[in-house]
Amino acid sequence: MAEEILSTSVNEEENTNFIYNFIKEDISEGGQYEGKTVHTRFPPEPNGYLHIGHCKALCIDFGMAERFGGITNLRMDDTNPAKEDAEYVENIKQDIHWLGFDWGDRFFYGSDYFDKDYEYAIELIKKGLAYVCELSPEEFKEYRGDTTTPAKSPYRDRPIEESLALFEKMKNGEVPEGKMTLRAKIDLASGNFNMRDPVIYRIKFINHHRQGTKWCIFPMYDFAHPIQDALEGITHSLCSLEYEDHRPLYNWVVENVSIPFYKPRQIEFARLGIDHTVMSKRKLRQLVEEGYVSGWDDPRMPTLCGLRRRGYTARAIRNFCDTIGVAKNTSVIEYSELERCLRDDLNMTAERTMAVLNPVKLTITNYPEDKVETFELENNPTVENSGTHTITFSKHLWMDAEDFLEEPIPKYKRMYPGNEVRLKGAYLVTCTGCVKDENGKIVEVLAEYDPESRGGDPADGRKVKGATIHWIDTNDCVDAEVRMYNNLFSDPEPDGPGKNFLEALNPDSLEVLQGCKVEKRMVEIAAKFDRAENRTGINAPTFQFMRVGFFCLDNRDSSADHLVFNRSVLLKDGFKK
Description:
By secondary structure, the protein is an alpha/beta fold. It is built from 13 helices and 27 strands. A 7-stranded mixed beta sheet has the order 12-25-26-27-23-24-13. Strands 21-18-19-20-14-17-22 form a 7-stranded mixed beta sheet, with no helix packed on it. A 4-stranded antiparallel beta sheet has the order 4-5-6-7.
């Protein structure tokens, strides 16, 4: 089930951008699509998992159509079968639904059009607009020319009938791979090298994940994509900026094949760049295949399944895409901005809970041994009527070792001998000392409580300068594994010019803590989630560990018998300015 996306009112005047303005102009009176339904498409290649960079395109493709009351197609661009797989198809569909978008019955594969692509290639040959070329890859590069020298091909004036016969042999598997290509006949002297008789078909003897071995010739993206857009009635082909130089070829294809259509308009926008991250699917696949991460859904990965496993919500990601906006110029966004969007969302939705990650015993020496009290902890103080849940208090507690210093440093306001602090929601306590083991390690902190301070407010009204610290009852907790995730890369530009991105891997990107203490009710919560259908496609329960950060149950490894929590984000920005 897709996560519910909260609807918000959109002020069209404030929320405009150049794409919105282009579309509005196109469908207005006198525009090229006057009276037409705005129709966009999202065409991912199923050779990997969707990542945060794809979200911007998703939000633009689906979002623009929604704003104009239009529709969006989902089309798998499977024209290059080398790295494509049905596994990726299903995960792409799952991630898009999780983000809150839907394509209805408009789901297609690029390979569905292979027969049509072939027909239109034949048509171009017959029109004298395409020819079979026998230049080797090395010769092709040599004859490419430069800004002052036109490209050349000795096969450009090959007779039409000869090209038709050779193209038929290519299709029938009678020509070795790399021996021949089909090239469009456009302009060898063009200043745009994409127009210098580009290859539109190549030979590849490979098993296609849907077509099997039916085809051994495959259309190039620049040829297949405009045909697919036109056949589906796409009005606006929205794509990233690297296709701007390909737009003349896009237009040339749709203008020279006989598709009964109104011409789609291609509009480009800048891709999303985020620091401390790589967005190349090739590099992400390398991280997975060479074992640098645990999989595509590793919480350090920028993939949607990885972000979801880390606790990111669909709403936070969509808010992030809205915040950065749509631009023509490429820029790099700070990762902290993505974290801010998550923090803002979880602050309103995550339930508060007690959890101690680095536990040390805290004994209230003057508290009765057999006494147990209960307190009500607010589930979320930022949300009205969010309710409470019950926690217990007894003589023996756990506290975080970081909240105690035997010899305090200046301005230290937490637990140290002689200092009075608040135990969150319970009592005021004064530290009286500690117990050490034979190695000098502190194994127990001792304190006395003020019986007249239930709830944390002293009866005599005195001001307490000490901090409020969290704790958990030893009788009302269970052990948990907590995974502290940080950025996968320590370099803000890990794949910059001249860099090996693997050398920028952060050795401290993951710290695993064992024996952490969480509220016992987490077992029941984990058991319910364990029974949830399709658990990897939904968000696991997320909590604010008070004073520590936001954490979620791991949607793959956690169970009622073995609780595993992933740190989603700190309570405040942890990036150094």
